[in-house]
């Protein structure tokens, strides 16, 4: 016997028939969360800027990873004596960044079609479309926040898993290969200082600004990747029990819940 939500007919809704001004919430908490949206967007832009800066630094610097001291044109990954050619690392790193930008371009293209359709459920489930409406006006953010304001644990889990899985291609294909290498390189760079009570950044990295920025950018993107990967692992663990409970397609379930609200 299928889930009851599949048999229930819910009308699709469009922004043409909704007055988002009716959902405005001027509470301090709602406005604070609205500001956080811009911080998340800025973080995303900084990640792309860091990636592009690191890629340019790799190809313009004869010794781009001097803080890991590569020898004979190879990087020692510190895993069973495995070494990676510097030229392979350059192409791998740059290729992952290009792939990430291509995936972003495809997402923007899909989001453009969703925005043109003015469909509410599709806009809510598209990260780029939702942020477009959110940045466009505070009432749109309040409207989306009202949709997301569910007191049901299952619905919260469903939305978390759905939105986490939306970025699996970028996470596993564009981010994981280069960030795993970056993590081993950072470990080598700092392993000699892990037992110290205080770490003097300039004493080890030096006073060269470009070198400091390169290492800082690498640490920033690795930190973001670790957080995203932990979220993805949590979503994977929740997926099978969730699908067993809703007895249907996750995207259809999320769109149904959005239209119903």
From TrEMBL:
A GO molecular-function annotation: potassium ion transmembrane transporter activity
**Bilayer-spanning residue ranges:** 36-59, 87-108, 213-242
**Keywords for this protein:** Membrane, Transmembrane, Transmembrane helix
Do you know which InterPro entries this protein is assigned to? Kch1/2
Does the UniProt entry include the keyword Transmembrane helix? yes
What species is given as this protein's source? Linnemannia elongata AG-77
Q: Which PANTHER family match?
A: LOW AFFINITY K(+) TRANSPORTER 1-RELATED, PHEROMONE-REGULATED MEMBRANE PROTEIN 6
Ranked from the top, the taxonomy reads: Eukaryota, Fungi, Fungi incertae sedis, Mucoromycota, Mortierellomycotina
The answer to whether the entry has keyword Transferase is no
Q: What is this protein called?
A: Uncharacterized protein
Q: Name one GO cellular component term.
A: plasma membrane
Domain of life of the source: Eukaryota
């Amino acid at each position: 016997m299928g889930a009851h939500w599949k048999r229930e007919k819910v009308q699709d809704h469009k922004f043409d028939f909704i007055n988002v001004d009716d959902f405005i919430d001027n509470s301090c908490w709602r406005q604070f969360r609205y500001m956080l949206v811009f911080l998340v967007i800025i973080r995303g832009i900084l990640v792309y800027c860091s990636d592009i800066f690191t890629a340019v630094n790799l190809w313009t610097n004869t010794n781009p990873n001097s803080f890991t001291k590569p020898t004979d044109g190879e990087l020692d990954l510190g895993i069973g004596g495995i070494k990676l050619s510097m030229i392979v690392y350059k192409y791998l790193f740059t290729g992952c960044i290009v792939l990430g930008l291509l995936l972003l371009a495809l997402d923007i293209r899909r989001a453009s079609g969703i925005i043109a359709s003015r469909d509410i459920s599709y806009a809510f489930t598209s990260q780029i479309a939702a942020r477009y409406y959110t940045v466009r006006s505070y009432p749109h953010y309040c409207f989306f926040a009202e949709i997301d304001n569910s007191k049901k644990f299952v619905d919260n889990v469903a939305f978390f898993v759905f939105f986490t899985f939306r970025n699996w291609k970028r996470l596993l294909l564009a981010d994981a290969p280069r960030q795993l290498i970056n993590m081993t390189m950072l470990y080598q760079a700092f392993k000699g200082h892990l037992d110290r009570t205080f770490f003097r950044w300039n004493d080890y990295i030096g006073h060269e600004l470009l070198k400091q920025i390169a290492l800082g950018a690498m640490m920033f993107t690795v930190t973001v990747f670790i957080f995203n990967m932990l979220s993805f692992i949590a979503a994977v663990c929740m997926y099978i029990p969730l699908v067993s409970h809703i007895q249907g397609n996750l995207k259809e379930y999320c769109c149904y819940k959005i239209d119903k609200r």
